[in-house]
Amino acid sequence: MENQSQQQEIRNTTRGRFGNLFTFGFLFPAILGASVLLSAYIVSTTFLGIKKLDNVISVSGSAKQRVTSDSARWTGTFSRLVTKDGVKDGYAQMKQDEQAVRTFLDAQGFKDAEISPISMNEWYRNDAKGTRDYNLSQYVEVRSKDVEKMKALAKSSESLAAGGIFFSPGPVEYYYSKLPELRVSLLPAALKDARARAEAIAQNSGAHVGATKSVSMGVVQVLSADSVDVSDYGAYDTSKIEKDVMITVKAAFQLD
Length: 256
Hints:
Blueprint: H1 2-53, E1 56-68, E2 71-83, H2 87-107, E3 114-115, E4 119-124, E5 132-144, H3 147-156, H4 158-162, E6 167-169, E7 173-175, H5 179-203, E8 209-224, E9 235-236, E10 242-255
Parallel strand pairs: 8-9
Antiparallel strand pairs: 1-10, 2-5, 2-6, 2-7, 3-5, 4-5, 8-10
């Protein structure tokens, strides 16, 4: 009897162990299949999300217009180099030079020109004695809306040197005063150019360019006529009367 009880207990224990293994073996494929389905769903959802993001195309567009400068600025300096003992006489000479410069500017039709007070800076000679000289100088600034007249003024300033005045002219700087209004008026053309580029890209994929999603304007480029010397930070050329004003936009369009 004792042997029969032990044999029955062994059979029950073995049946329990194999029963658990059988149950796990049956459930494992089901769990694995559910995991695969869940992963497929996640991948499918992610893919759809990416496809939605891909339905927007971002491109750049630009527009340009030729303008003529409507104002100008011209500067120059005249100076005298004097010794320490000659500072007083140097100031007197500078007053005469200033009068000569004003007479010249008045004759050219620029009576409102600004001339700064005399500025004095030490000038060291490169010698053993360390002799000090002093540079006396004055700054001239002329502004006008007559750009052609300003151009002629800069050329004629050479006559001051012929009169014994140490005059150093700067270049004429040309500006366009209606730049803010022009920038706004060029926006539609730049956006149209961006859409045309988007359509050219989408044409190969069979997509249709739909509504505008977003638009941002880039820096303004004011270039000399026919120049391509653009800058990432914007440019403003003042050396030429004729200029090309260019704006850029970055636009995003819906793809249908």
